[in-house]
Amino acid sequence: MASRIGSDLHRARTRREIELHEVEAATRIRARFLRAIENEEWDALPGGVYTRGFIRTYANFLSLDGNRLADDYRREVEGAQPEVAATARGSAAPRVSRGVPWAAVIAAVAVALAVAVAVFAIPGGGNGGGGGASPGPQDASRSSTGQGGEQATTTSPARKPPRGVSMRLTAKAEVWACVLDASGRRLVDGQILEAGAAAGPFRSGSFTLSLGNGEVTMLIDDREAAIPPTPSPVGYLVDSSGALTELSEAERPSCE
């Protein structure tokens, strides 16, 4: 069945007498990508979640059903290829869980450690006397006399700074980005960052992210990470130690 995605978008745009450069300014999608969508030149687009995001944004701008057209693209153009590729790699996990299990495990460990630190940091209440029991009023009085009238004080331990790792993105060229924290919360929700635009800094136990290309500068705890300037989509896991691990296509978040 032939796709009508491009023709529907083209008709809606021309009916409203809107030029492609106006759509580009409003949606931040390059005119060459908009033209490729209208002409259904799918090979000229990054494909997958990135193309579906472009279609959804473009259609919504024209007051069309962006979710429906994005689903049409997935069904009519992509077909069953993503599922087949995942099966060939031996992945049994559903697509919605990709990239999240590692982050959830790290978050759970961080919470358990925080609870343990809080429990063992509770003061014992002792003043160095025998048995470690808290002194009664009379004992306190004697202690005060023995110390020249000075009253001993107990101070609570200082709070530790927040745990986790800091991450900041700065686009060197136009790039689509999806960033999740350790709990799966969307910090950058499938947005297109223009050249020079920044996202963050964010702090979390870990991060998973997808990028439309490698034209970004990533700072992890104020140290620049090694991101190859590839024109192809990439994805990464930033763990609690700040280490960077590249993710496979099936593991990358999609912000859908």
Number of strands: 9
Helical proportion? 25-40%
Q: Average the pLDDT over all residues and give the rounded result.
A: 77
Strand order of the largest sheet: 3-2-5-8-9
Structural class: alpha+beta
- Which shape, going by the Cα principal axes? elongated
**Which series of helices and strands comes N to C?**
HHHHHHHHEEEEEEEEE
Multimerization status: single chain
What report would you give on this structure?
The chain contains eight helices and nine strands. It is elongated, with a radius of gyration of 27 Å. The protein has 256 residues and is of the alpha+beta class. A hairpin with a 5-residue loop joins strand 8 and strand 9. About 16% of the residues have low confidence. Among the domains are: 75 residues, Orthogonal Bundle (434 Repressor (Amino-terminal Domain)); 100 residues, no CATH class. A five-stranded antiparallel beta sheet has the order 3-2-5-8-9, with no helix packed on it. A four-stranded antiparallel beta sheet has the order 4-1-6-7, with no helix packed on it. Helix content is 36%, strand content 19%. The protein starts with a helix and ends in a 10-residue tail after the last strand.
